[in-house]
Predict the structure.
Amino acid sequence: MVYGKLREMGADLYTDDEFEVKAYESALRSLSMSASSCGKMRDKLQKRGFSQVIVNSVLAKLQEQGLLDDEEYAKSIVKHELFVYCRSKKLAGLKLKSLKIDEWIIQDALDSVEDTEVFRIHTEFIDCAISRILESLKQRQLDEESRGFELQKEFRKLLGKAARKGISHELVNRRWRELCNLSDWDL
């Protein structure tokens, strides 16, 4: 139900305090399903027709109670993007921008994760993918020519997958050469 339209239709059906309670309950329902940033919650409440004054009041109350915390939310999103989806810091930052988080909070969240940790995660991701590729090719028992063709094809697929995650081509190439023992094979 859009409460702004209710107000227009019923003029004095609800007082401002009752609208604030309804906005607060709406925000709590939304937060019970998933965490949110202040910017996204502001948009949700405004789309439901609540006035700017009521939205600001509700957001302040939620922040005071610790139910909306952009800094913690940003850190959890960054860790999720980096360690679950194995994406780059740049892509994690873009995700946070889409969630309407302030630039300084985004930078703090990205800085909270060490570059060496990200490199380790990306290396593990690439190593695991290469191991699966090699195991799959072993099971297929291909002749040397077919094996070379399949290796090239799988390498190209892996490059594309890594690029979509923001993982450098250089890392993929280096790990591929090391794990496949292909120091003399030109990719």
